[in-house]
Structure formats: structure tokens, C-alpha cells
Amino acid sequence: MHTRGFELRSEPALLETDLDATNMNSEGNGRRQGRGVYAEEDPLEVQRYLEALRRSRWLIVTIVTIVTIVVLAYSATLPKTYVATAHIVVNNPGSLVGSNETQAVQRNLATTATLATTSAVLAEAARSVNGETRADLANRVSASVEENANIIDIKVSYGTARGAAALASAIARAFLSQHATDQRSNTTHTLSLLSSQIAALRARQSSEPAVAAQLSALQARAAEVEATSASSGAQMQLIETAVPSGPSSPRPFRNGVIALFAALFMAVLVALGREQLTPRVTSQRELSHMLSLPVLSGIPFVRRRVDVRYARAEYEAYQTLSAALRLALQPGMEPHVMLITSATHGEGKTTVAARLGRVLAQAGHATLLVSGDLRWPKLDDALKVSGNPGLRELLTHDTDDAAVRFDELRQLVLPARGEGISHRAVLDVLPAGRGDGDASELLHTPALPSFIGALRQSSYAYILIDSPPILSVADAQMFAQYCDELLLVARLDHLKASDVVDLRETLDRLEANAAGLVVIGTRPSGSPYYAAGAPATEASATEGPPVRIVG
After folding, report:
1. Is the pTM of this model over 0.70?
2. What's the whole-number mean pLDDT along residues 261-269?
3. Cα dist. 87→101, 176, 237 in Å?
4. Which domain holds residue 214?
5. Which SS3 state, helix, strand or coil, does residue 522 take?
6. Cys-Cys link to 22, which of 128, 445, 524, 549 (CB 3.0-4.6 A)?
7. Is residue 237 included in any domain, yes or no?
8. Which residue, among 368, 355, 466, has the nearest Cα to 415 in the 3D structure?
9. Are residues 542 and 417 in the same domain?
10. Which of 182, 214, 241 is the last residue of a domain?
């Protein structure tokens, strides 16, 4: 058989998840006593909500972006509307009601402002503006009184700035003309009544001397009304009708800002509601309690490397996992055939298998990595051994003799040889193999227990089998029946509470000997210990012995 050497690297693009650890969790570094709980304290409830928002961050961004863009686009398509205001000042408003009481004056000003939008005023204004009708103006005009001034504001909305100013001015002038006409009509009617009363009193004055006082009072009142009539035109004046500098609507920027915050609020509610409908496990302690398993190591999840300290922290986290695992397993029972799996896809089991195998080999333990995921062999892709003969070829051979199977195994997996590693154990790999046959059929044959028996005859101290998720397909459950231990990998931001319940039931049904948990996604924290003795380069912190593949 042709032999090629491959070096196991920790490049993020080649592994299932990009795990950058900035902290070690040493709660699982004691010998396992049954299925205890070794985890950090529960985080604050606000941390749970923050984690829920972080997991739904792309949903929030999508909702906010779509709503904001739709509102901006809709606002941009709306026709522009300009609002012009004509200001009418009222001189001596108390004379309108003959009283200087504040409340009476304000009521009279409000009544006068209401008269500015009557049909008579609008009809007169429409006659002075071409193309406008009274009904059109009724939908565009409004009148109000300023709070701290005797000024009536007449506001008109229109499609152009100059058109709005022209309409506002026309309505204001029509209102002033109508008001002056009404005032003159009222004055004329009042003077007519006073004149009739004065004439009647003069006829009675010769026979009734007592009516002289009444006559004098009526004459004084008539003189007052005449004086008011003379000044009625100057009581209200149009002081300003400004051309608007910009449209009052639509305002895309204002609408966009409002839509942004409204959409953000709505998206947060959706994310939190989604979290309540599909609750997730958010802490090591909760996960350990639900599964009744100890947490052997907690590995923070960082999407990209930052500096050498983070690479060193990741390396130390896997050193912690290696130490905790060796203490949790029963000594003197080598080799340990361990299945590494997870509840669902994408939790990081392939990454854990590859890096744990490297760390065990660096500690001097002969280690074999078995690419047991025959459906999606990510380990083969990570180690660049895709297409090499391996596990499929072993399972398809028509033999259930463990000795024969062991001879075939030795032909496919050979220890690595290289300068500078002769004093250390070697990390070997058995690829998934070639072929597209049904993985379930291969694993449901007597070839699988025969293969596990061949592994037990090897000289490896640790045999790590990377399998598919245990809840997705039956492959991992088939492996679990014949393996010594089972190591569960759980990523907090992926794992739902329902998945944990299903996982617990599956483990109980299989009666699998679960060694513990590796929790991905714990809270990272800096530590000066990671800087002490840190390697000069990031690669040196995670590189391990080369891997030899035969095929």
C-alpha cells in the first residue's frame, strides 16, 4: 500500500466549528463519582435574555433592515406636501366682545378662528384662485389660535410651496373681507335699531321730561358703535404669509428613524417570544443537571482568532479536557474505545475529536482517530484524507473474525514516523473510506462488533470515534452499543431544551456509559496564565504530531 504523511492542523476553515478558547474550565478535573454536577453557577436572568438576542441577531437584523427599507421606499414614493401659514393679528381683541376678561377673549378668538374655515370664506377664496373648489380647500385648510399671542394661524397644505402660500394668503384675505363685511352689516343693523329708539324717545321728550337721560345714553351708544365701525377694518390684519422652505411630508429620514426603532422593538419581542416557544440551555450547570453528567471542560466559542493568547487558551482548554478525561476513565482498561458525538449537527464534535486526539498524543498516549461519520466525513476533510480507503472497506468485507479484521486494519492505519517525534506517541487516523453505500446497512451487520474487536487488539491507549449526531440518525447509537465510553459535545447556543430531554432518554435507553460533557460556548474571560509561557506563534500553540495515512 502507498503511504503518505499528513500533519494535523487547527485551521478554522478545515474544522467543523471555529473554536477559539480564552478560558479554561476546571470544574470537571476530578475523578468522576457517578454522574455528578461540576459546572459554573447559574448566570443572571438578564444573561439568558442577552444570549437569546445574540442567537437571534440575524433575525433581528433582517426584520429591522426590511422594515426600515420598506418605510423609506414608501416614504420616497409619496407626493410632497407643503404647508404655508398665514398669520392674522387681532388688535384689541376685547373690543370684539366688549370685555377684557382673558377667558372671554380666548373664547372669542377661538370662535373667530373657526369662522376662517366656513363655507362662505372658502367659496370666496376659491373664486380668487383658478382651478380650486370649495370642497378641495375644505380638506387642506385649518385654523388655530397661538397660545401666548393674539394671532390666528391659517394653515394650508398643497403640492407646491408657492401654491400653498398663495392659497393661505387667499383664504386669509377672504376671511378678513368676510369678517369686515359681517362687522359692517352688524354695525348698520345696530345703528338702525338705535336710530329708531332715539327717534321714539325724542317724540316722547316734550311730554315726558324723564326720558332725557335714556335719550342721552342711546346717543352715546350710537356714537360708540359708529366709532367701532370706523375702525373695524384695522381690528384684524394679515401680517405674514411665508413661502415654506421645504415639504412638510413625506420626511423619509424621520420616518426611517421611527421605523428603525419600531422595528428594533418589534424584532426584540419576536426574538424573546421565539426563545420562550423554543427554550434553549444557557449554562453548563443547567445542562449538567438535565443530563446528570459532569462537565469535563468548558470551551469558549470565539468566531475568529484574535492573538496568541486566545490560541494558547484553546490549547490549555483541551489540556484540561485531556486531564479530566484520563481521571474520569478507569485505569488499566486500555485501549479505551470512546465514541465522540453530540445531540445535533454543528455542535463541534469533529473539532473536539481532532484536537483531543492531538493533545492525548502529545501527552504520550498512542491515539487513533476513527472517522465514523460515513454520511458526512468532516474529519476526512479536516485531515485532507478524503477518498482514502478506510472504515467502509473494513465493514464491507465478508468476515466477522476480529483477527482478520485487525490484519486489515493494520494495512489501512500505520503509525507516523518523523524527525523529533520518536519519543512521543503517534496520532493515527482511519478514514471513513470510499463508496456511497447506505451507512445504516453497513453498521447493522456483524462487521461492526468485529471491527470494534479488532480495535481492542491494537496497541492504542485511546481510540476516538467521530460519529454522526446521536439524535439525527441511528449510526451513533449503533456505535454506542460496542464502545467503552461516550463523550458528549454540546454547544450552548445550538442546544434546545427539548434536544436535551431527547438525549437523556436516548442515553438511558442505550444504557451508554457516558464519561461526561464538553460544553462549547461558555463565557470567555481573560487570564494572565494564558500569556505565561505562550508560544511565539499561534500555530505552535495548537500543532501536534503529524498523521500518517496508508491507502
Report:
1. no
2. 93
3. 23, 12, 9
4. 82-241
5. strand
6. 524
7. yes
8. 368
9. yes
10. 241
As given in the structure block, the three cell numbers for residue 169 are: 394668503
The answer to which of 346-355, 486-495, 522-531 has the lowest mean pLDDT is: 522-531
Last residue of a domain, one of 241, 273, 301: 241
Element (H, E) at 338: strand 336-342
Encode pLDDT of 195-253 as tens digits.
888 777 777 766 666 677 777 887 788 787 777 666 555 678 888 787 888 888 888 88
**Torsion sign across C-alpha atoms 199, 205, 208, 212:** positive
Cis preceding-peptide flag for 244 (omega within 30 of 0): no
Residue 106: in which H helix or E strand, if any? helix 102-115
Total tally of structural domains belonging to the chain? 2
User: Do 314 and 212 sit in the same domain of this protein?
Assistant: no
What CATH number does residue 527 fall under?
3.40.50.300
pLDDT at 42 over 50: no
Q: Mean pLDDT for the chain?
A: 75
Are 18 and 96 in the same domain? no
- Whose CA is closest to 194, among 178, 164, 169, 215? 215
Residue 508 in any domain: the answer is: yes
Is 189 inside any structural domain? yes
Is residue 28 domain-resident?
yes
25 and 133 together in one domain: no
DSSP of 319-331: HHHHHHHHHHSPT
Buried b (16+ CB within 10 A) or exposed e, 60-88: beebbeebbeebbeebeeeeebbbbbbbb
